[in-house]
Amino acid sequence: MAKKIVIALGGNALGNTLKEQMAAVKYTSKSIADLIEAGYDVVIAHGNGPQVGMINNAFVEYGKIDPKLPVIPLSVCVAMSQAYIGYDLQNTLREELLNRGINKTVSSIVTQVIVDENDPAFKRPTKPIGPFMTEQEAEVGRANGMIIVEDSGRGYRRVVASPEPKDIVEIETIKTLLEAGQIVVACGGGGIPVVKKGNELKGVGAVIDKDFASSLMAELIDADSFVVLTAVEKVAIRFGKPDQEWLSELTVELANKYIEEKEFAEGSMLPKVKAALSFATSKSGRKALITSLEKAADGLSGKTGTIIRS
Contact 61/130 with Cβ under 8 angstroms? Predict the structure, then answer.
């Protein structure tokens, strides 16, 4: 049987603008097609930090021109980002597969993810969205009521609440498509955050971390491996310092030790390591891999990347 993997694509695989995205997904699709050609059954998740921020900002600016325009909820902005990122991903991946003689359908699922409305994350926003800002731009944003923080030495970004994903509404659809041999794009941007009100699903103002949502999806479809693709080939401790050390493997104990010592940046590597830990410890024999897009195939064959296992 083919091995099932869930791939969580980082922002570097998508670009920051529409033009960049169209170019980036063509490159990204080649690496994903390599894995499909190697025999893996693949479910793809992706981030949406820059995209959902741009969509939200566009509606805010348009609202200044036309005050009659209703406020567009952040949950709707997430849904929009799922659709237009998924559109590019599914088309470019389908084209790449057909160019290789592989006839597989690629489908994007508008995915809702259930969160707890009492999650403490709503009182402590940490999820970066939108483009990087200068210090001056950040000051203007704060004056307009945004919560803006410095992001890992790369500039300033707006942050919003990032509650923990509890369940995936469309998980049975994802399973059915996967079992039919299709490639699935799901939980884009971490999924549309919703809370249950009886039979009603109500969107909330937040952005779920795509790594945590992807890890949960990997658990629910009983994946063999969870793969987080990011900008670096391996996880490092003392990152950016003269004594920086790249890690080829992390045990649960060592990963928790490094987390406690704050070795991983909160808006960058920390959620990736935590999500990988969550999947690796969810069932015996499961493993998670953190590596770069270019090294995905090598990472799955054990040649590089950081492996996390229980």
Answer: no
